[in-house]
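Trying the structure run again after the queue cleared.
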Amino acid sequence: MNKLVLLLLVAVFFSFCGKSQTSRIPVEHSDMKEIVLTNENTIYLQDWVRDVEIIPLETSDKALVGNISGIIVTDNHIIVYDIFQTKSVFIFGRDGKHRATINRRGRGPQEYVSLEHVAMLPDNKTIAINDNMGQKVLHFTLDGRFISSTPSRFRFFTMEYLTENKLVCAAYGISETDPGLQEYENRTDLLYFTDNTFEITGSTLPKRYKEGRFQITPNLHKFEDQVYVHRPLGDTIYRATPDRLKAIYRIEMKKIDGESNLRSDITAEDFDLLSSQKNTFPGLFADSKNYFNVPVVSPDRKMKNYLYSKRSGKVYRVEQRKEGVFGAFSWPRVGIGDKFAEVKLAYQLIDIGGEEMRKQHPELANLTEESNPVIVLYGFKEGL
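Done. Tokens:
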């Protein structure tokens, strides 16, 4: 009898071990900061920027940037990737000089079928490319040399490294049909935590919207060593760590006639009607040391920028005069230190700034409509 009990206990133990990957990552909401967007305090960007760094990206036959899907800015490099037109990763120095281009489309062991997302490892020396269709992640050096390829056990859209060996991956919302997740109990979740072999260690953010309605991949943003998560059409921004998801900001938009947390039964038609009447939050935020930028889409499909000051706790509506490098329509893509980085398209700068802008900024003297984009980094003066 004792042997039978022992065998049963051992079987139960290994059964639980085998199902450890089904664990739910805890989500914390304590100490969450509410950011109330308001139009009470309006500033003009041109009046408050400081330490402006204008970096035209070198244009050459080897570096013709098409669509800008995302940028990564480090102390020494600017990485621009295009998942739609050129399906390439362009690597520039902080001086804007072209260093390398990764364009490895194909089905070989060092090639990608699709370029879905690009991430930087914590060492800031290694680029990771998610090939969703090929179900693998490829690693390259900053001079474009291939390092390795790791099969991905399931399909995901974006990923970010929490540590050298831990990642968070955002799925499409159709995970229950993914063959790689059929053995996973929580396969309707949208956010997966894995090791660097893409073995799932936990998951969270179950599907919010009903079948036949919205199902959107969570947004992942990285600022220095912090990874942020936002569920589209939701009002909460989380910070991901290897063992939990912590709510850090809640975006409140009632004072600007907006909706930031949409009901779970909303349809595409409902959303189209709502967004034609109210401001909405698409989740394109950017963080920096002392400021947090929140872009909002207005009913006329224009982007409005709101700046939250961590120093004062105030929120500012940020306007731009139609002049100079800050006159072109844009929003901060990423933060680095206490600066934000914006992408300015060459033809927009020429249309708005003209010759006067080029006189003020000699680095733009050779800019033409066919030139690559310009990266503008800036901080803010004291007082906000």
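The chain has one domain: 24-380. Worth checking whether this holds up in the mutant runs.
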